[in-house]
Design a protein that fits this description.
Blueprint: H1 3-9, E1 11-16, E2 20-29, H2 33-41, H3 43-49, E3 53-55, E4 62-65, E5 71-78, E6 82-89, E7 92-102, E8 108-117, H4 120-125, H5 127-146, H6 152-159, H7 162-181, H8 186-204
Antiparallel strand pairs: 1-2, 2-8, 3-4, 4-5, 5-6, 6-7, 7-8
Helix pairs in contact: 1-7, 5-6, 5-7, 5-8, 7-8
């Protein structure tokens, strides 16, 4: 697949006020709703493109992402259409929804919405912080659907490369644009996107 074109495959939208915000990403994939649902909920497949996870993986159960330490509750699980989870990370609790819709024969759209508080982290980093993470996740999903043999190491190699740095830079620009469309001043949106980009690149730097 073409890594550079992946940025343009995602539709991004931002809503925010003084208390709450939501970032939305939508991408259409060349597969069926059932297969896309399986890719997003089957632990064996999630471990190849997102994160390994464990837990009581049913409605009302608790999950844990083993790499990031994110935990949460599975609030709704309506195969193959809708999933809602809490997203509990470093003392903050937010909520993520994923919905899948068939688009004709052999195509399905995934929409991810991440609902959070407009706190100090949001004011400093804006939507590009969480959005950049979901951009990398959708890249991993696209790689997985393109070649099921691809794994998390492939995503890490890309994101740690110059190609990955350009991918992240362009993504941060798109999040700044979506932030401005939601009403943020350009100077504020650009500054937050730059800060989020620096945070993102530090994450993918190889360990000494």
């Amino acid at each position: 697949m073409n890594i550079a074109s992946q940025i343009n495959e995602v539709l991004r939208h931002v809503e925010f006020d003084d208390e709450r915000n939501v970032i939305t990403l939508t991408q259409t994939f060349p597969t069926t709703p059932d297969d896309l649902w399986d890719a997003c909920t089957n632990p064996d497949r999630l471990a190849r493109w997102f994160e390994p996870l464990t837990g009581d993986l049913r409605r009302g159960g608790r999950y844990r992402l083993l790499d990031s330490g994110t935990v949460g509750t599975i609030e709704t699980c309506e195969a193959p259409r809708a999933l809602t989870i809490t997203w509990e990370y470093e003392g903050e609790v937010s909520r993520v929804t994923a919905s899948i819709e068939g688009h004709g024969t052999g195509a399905a759209a995934l929409t991810v919405r991440h609902f959070g508080e407009s706190n100090d982290h949001w004011r400093e980093y804006g939507p590009a912080a969480g959005g950049g993470g979901w951009d990398a996740g959708l890249l991993g999903l696209a790689l997985h659907l393109d070649d099921p043999r691809a794994d998390l190491d492939a995503v890490s190699r890309i994101m740690g490369s110059e190609e990955g740095a350009e991918f992240a830079r362009r993504g941060s620009e798109e999040w700044s644009r979506a932030h401005q469309e939601a009403g943020a001043p350009k100077s504020e949106a650009d500054a937050a996107a730059r800060a989020a980009l620096a945070l993102d690149r530090a994450q993918w730097e190889p360990a000494d």
